[in-house]
Amino acid sequence: MSYLERVQACHQFDRSEYFDFVIGDEIMGLTRPQFAEQLLRWSDVFQLKNNQLLLNPELTSFEQRTQAVAAIMEQLYQEGVIPAWVNEPYAVSHCFEEQPRMAVERAVASYLGVRSYGIHINGLVQKSDGIYNWVAVRARDKPFWPGQFDQMVAGGQGIGIGLMENVIKESAEEADIHVDIASQAQQRTTLHYCSNSSRGISMDTLYNYDLWLPEDFTPVNTDGEVDEFILMPLAEVAEIIDTSEQFKTNCNLVNIELLIRAGIISESHPDFKAITKLLYSPAVKL
User: Quick check: pTM over 0.70?
Assistant: First the structure.
């Protein structure tokens, strides 16, 4: 696969295959009809009208919506309809800065097709022969993308926590990076993508950071989610992306964006315009 195909892989969905998920008079997500059928068992909370999955309009507050939906999702988890549970609430909103309409369990976000937010941190080291990047190898017992390459630090952006606060938290948990170092991370880009997934649709916004680390620093995982860290030259990262599927799918977006900024993928690349147009495309409008 080419760099362009890696980016395209994160922008594959057909809206006609989904019901709009509506709260009040706003479309907040996209839900597969099969999952909507499960939700319609609770007719006092979910309704179907004109191929739209509606949250009961009588649920008007953040708390009412959150509590009503949480009870249903917990039941579906107990029944095995939802196979995983993270116990981390996500905001349901169109963008990170606005007031959320409700909160949902992280594992449910793709089923409802609501926008999710996350942070990705490039762990960079400047050596005499060029720039290197710390790559995490995901734990082989993780339910999703086991054993694949990931950013040094990456995590979901739960409700009620700021971006830098999350950078510091995830850096400590995933790579044992002290707050004095983690707080030096600099936000570089924001990327959006929307793609089919096994759980529904991933409609994600990624906040991407660069963290420059000293040559003598080695990350150490503390939460069991990473098996090892590998320090790679950026040229090797580029080759792996271009020739294999070792990186987690959405990490390819973050890595390709980094390779563009580093000049490894330049305007001379035959797909440069197509890559950048899709990579930096705005969030899907619902």
Answer: yes
